[in-house]
Amino acid sequence: MKISLDAGALCAKANLHFGNYTFTQSLIDSIQKYDQNNEYYTYSFCQKPNWLDVRDKFHYKVLRPSVLWLSTRVSIEEIQFKKDIFLALNQAIPISTKSKVISFSHGLSFYFYPQFYPDSHYVLNDQLDPMIKKSNYIVVPSRRVKKEMEKLFPGYSRIKILNYGVPVDMINYLPAKKRKYFLFVSMNHGIKNIEFLIKTFKLFRQNKKFSDYKFFLVGNLEKFEDEKNGIYAFPKVTRNEVRKLYSEATAYLTASFYESFNFPVLEALSQNCPVIGLDGSIIPEFKDLVNMAYDPTNFLNLMFTVSQNKGTKFERSEILKKFSWKKYVAKLVELY
C-alpha cells in the first residue's frame, strides 16, 4: 500500500522540538524499522532533517509554498498522486484527498483551556468536526483523550488508543549517580503551569536540609532563570545532554493543567528518573509509575519524600516493554 503522512511538525524551530516533533520523529523512525511492506511518502515544507535516513519504500517530499500548505498544497499532491492511506499526524486534514484518512489527536488542551491558546484555539476547534467526519479512525495517545473525545462526540466509535513508545534516543541508559537537582523539560507555555513549579521549588529550598538543591529548566525558559534561588535555564542542549540530565536528576517535576500524554514523563522514567506530578499532568497509564499529587501541599511533601530516596518504585525494563514503538507501529498497520 502507498501511505502518505503529514510531517510538517518537523519544521519546528530547534528550541521547540517537543511534543509533536518528538512524536513525528519517533513514528517515522519506527515505521522505517518495523514496516517493510508498505511504501511511505512523507510531506513536509522544509529540508530533510539530518537524522532522517531515506531508504527504499520511504520518500521525503518537500512541498511548497508553506502558505496554506496542508489545505491547498498537500491537497493538490493527494489529488495528483493518489495514495491508499493519509496519516494526519497533527489532527488537520487536507481539504481534498482520495485516501483513507487516519487522524491523530494529541489532546484537547486547546478545548478545555482556550485561555492558553489565544492565537490557535479557534483553528484547532474548527478542525475537530472535519476530523470526525472524514477520518476512518482517530488515534489518541491515552485513555484520557479517548474518554474526552467520546464525551464530545457521543456515538463515535472509531477511536483507537495507541500509547506512544519511549523516544528512540532514550532507549539506551547509562547508570548515573543522582545529583541534587530537580528537572523540567518543555517549552514556555501557559498550559505547563511553570509558575507553580518555581513557587513550590522555592518553598522546598527554604528547608535548610535541602537548601543546596537546584532546579534545571530545559527549553526556551530563560525568563524563569533565578540563580540566586538555584533555578537555571538550559535553552540549548543536545538530546544526549538531556538524557544525562534525566539520569542524574533527583526527580522530574510536572504540574501541567492538562496533558494528553506527557512525553518528558516517559523520557524520565526511561532514564530511571522518578517523576512527581500534579494529577492533571499525569495520564491514567502513568499513575502507577509516578508520585502523583493532588494539591500543592501534597506536591511539596512528595519532593521531600523522593529526595530521601523514597516514593513510588518502578522497573525500567517494564517501561520499555509497555511503551514500545514496535507495538505502536504494529497496531497502526492493523488499521490500514
Automatic annotation (TrEMBL):
Gene3D superfamilies the UniProt entry points to: Glycogen Phosphorylase B
Species whose genome carries this gene: Candidatus Roizmanbacteria bacterium RIFCSPLOWO2_01_FULL_35_13
Top-level taxonomy: Bacteria, Candidatus Roizmaniibacteriota
GO molecular function ontology, one term from the record: glycosyltransferase activity
Name under which the protein is recorded: Glycosyl transferase family 1 domain-containing protein
Domain of life according to the entry: Bacteria
Transmembrane intervals: none
